[in-house]
Amino acid sequence: MGGVLEGVRVLDFGRYIAGPYCATLLAEFGADVIRVEKRDGSEDRFVAPVGEGGEGALFLQVNRNKKCITLDPMKAEGQEVMRRLIATADVVVANLPPQTLRAMKLDYESLKAIKPDIILTTATAFGGPGPWSDRVGFDGVAQAMSGSVYMTGAGDPPYRAAVNWVDFGTALHCAFGTLAALIERGKSGRGQIVEGALLATALSFTNATLIEQAVINVNRVPTGNLGQTAAPADIYRTKDGWVLCQVTGHPLFKRWARLIGEEELWLNDPRFADDISRGNNGRIISERMARWCAERTTQEAVDALGQAMIPTGPVLSPQQALDHPHIRAAGFMQDVDYPGLPKQAPVARAAVRLSETPGNIATRPPTLGEHTDLILAELGYDEAAIAALRRGGII
Question: Contact at 8 Å (CB) between 166 and 202?
């Protein structure tokens, strides 16, 4: 497909998001990524089904630009196929528990015995060392243990985010680490393990809150959408919807006071002298902003705030997000065909652009085992051998 990672082969044993999306990012910039999947389809293929074959929205998002081979790696013949595959690879991506890696012979020592300079990119729920190293977990568990869920919503009950930000953040960390490992291998010839963890990602994203707690023991409690360290920062009702506005820093606060025509009132009151003071008195500022927004439509509010260079945006439903003129014009998503879909799927491109070597969605996600015969032929299997593997339930 071309791209900055052309010539790099990645074997993707990942499941759900952290591993597969890491591999997807590498594929979007040119890596040759082979998804290795169970013979009857791995469970992450069928999350939120949208097509005739049961393939899900998540699968369509995080598996574009890949080839797919089906394989049972727990049988001797499957292990031989894996050995040949690994010998051709630069990177193995597997967000699987350590005990599963060992059982599948995808642990680093087993991989090195086949390809000494291999890079193993893993992601676990809790990382290690530690008493929870071998436990399994999903995105929501890491959210809950990081302080994020505690601080979200109004407190009773606490809320996790509906979006899997921990999984996608871990994928980003793993892709970054894989690129760093490839650069190091280019210098020294050495492979290494790249290890991500859902809990580590969640803690890194909530780290400022944890630092504040550790240093000054502030003991914050959740306040819904109301910001706590600056104001106005909240979600406000308009005549026909909702808008989010976030003002942080005195220059922005001055612009906000100027916009509503009350500079003298807000800029000379010591209760609003700096961000933290404004955050401590945020309900007062938010009440004034709520009245300002209630007098306007959503479009009028976001246009006025935007023209005043104040961060704002409308609260959009999923359909409104798809239809928003800026999202459409910016080309953040690409319509992708897939067998059995009633219409094209809007797949989000990698959310970073390189001016000279941009990423590219070149191929749709693979159907189950779509490239099995092609890949096995590349590994030296003839038609008779491939047929025998199929009869034996290996592929």
Answer: yes
CA distances from 390 to 78, 152, 373 (A): 11, 50, 10
> What's the pLDDT tens digit per position in 93-110?
999 988 999 999 999 999
The span from the CA of 312 to the CA of 275, in Å, is 18
What are the tokens at 333?
């998503």
Residue 244 is given by DSSP the state E
Judge whether 26 and 33 are in contact, CB under 8 Å.
yes
The CB density around residue 345, as the number of other CB atoms within 10 Å, is 20
**Cβ-contact 121, 177 below 8 angstroms:** yes
pLDDT tens for each residue of 225-253: 999 999 999 999 999 999 999 999 999 99
Give residue 1's pLDDT band: very low, low, confident or very high (50, 70, 90): low
> Residue for token digits 């040949």?
84
CA dihedral 346, 347, 351, 353 (to 10 degrees): -90
The tens digit of pLDDT for each residue in 149-184 reads: 999 999 899 999 999 999 999 999 999 999 999 999
- Classified as helix, coil or strand, 119 is strand
Strand, coil or helix: 332: coil
Distance CA 358, CA 3 (A): 7
Q: What does the chain come to in residues? A: 395
Whether the CB-CB separation of 155 and 220 falls below 8 Å is answered with no
State the DSSP code for 33: E
Alpha helices in 41-158 (DSSP H): 57-62, 76-87, 98-103, 108-114, 139-145
Mean pLDDT rounded to a whole number for the chain: 96
Residues with Cβ within 8 Å of residue 122, at least 6 apart in sequence: 93, 94, 95, 96, 101, 193, 194, 195, 196
pTM higher than 0.90: yes
